[in-house]
Amino acid sequence: MCKATAEPTVNWYVLHVRGGRELEIADEINFGGVSGIRALCPTEIVDEWRKGHWKSLSRVIFPGYVFCEVQGSSTSSLYYAVKRLPGVIRWLGHGDGIACTAVPPEEMAVVLLLGNDGKPFGPSYGYKTGGRTHITSGPLCGMEHLITAVYPHRRRARLSIPLMGDIKEIEVTARLGGQQSSEAKPAAE
User: Fold this and answer.
1) Sign of the Cα pseudo-torsion (89, 90, 96, 97, in order)
2) What is residue 12's three-state secondary structure?
């Protein structure tokens, strides 16, 4: 049975789920009659090179995880309602059988930005200069400190995101050119 570990009336928790079932489980929570909880599964539009062309595909950016917003201070009844859903493995932070650990607000702020209110987000644009990455537009604006690597030829950036006492490495679409002025607009493709 889970109880909120913080006083606020809204807490975010993380479900560990079977890979490939994230969107299905989030939909089941949101539209399947589990009241008092809202699920978020951040997705992005990914640029992938396939058969000699760039294609845009939708992809889950935190594979194996679904984020749950819980209203109120107790999750004990919701714990069992969600745990019985096919594909749900466990609530993260549920090690002692008594309490679930809520995601700290500063960590959840990054997830919510990437969550884009449940809609897939598009690419970020920017440039590199002097060994630093500068994002001029897109969801990574202001998150340059989380970027640990850039792969321009793959149109990807690697982020290190703190989550529940661990660091999650994810890759997202980023179209970065060479040295440019910060006023430069991305070229249409």
Assistant:
1) negative
2) strand
Q: What's the chain's average pLDDT?
A: 83
What are the pLDDT digits (tens) for 149-173? 998 888 889 999 999 888 999 999 8
Question: Could you give the angle at the alpha carbon of 54 between the alpha carbons of 49 and 57, nearest 5°?
Answer: 85
How far is it, in rounded angstroms, from Cα 78 to Cα 72? 11
Residue with tokens 């951040």: 42
Residue 106 is encoded by which pair of tokens? 């500063």
The residue type of 11 is: N
Report if pTM > 0.90: no
Measured CA to CA, the distance from residue 65 to residue 143 in angstroms comes to 21
Give buried/exposed letters for 130-140 (b at 16+ CB in 10 A, else e).
eeebbbbebbb
User: In Å, what is the CA distance from 86 to each residue of 17, 90, 118?
Assistant: 9, 11, 21
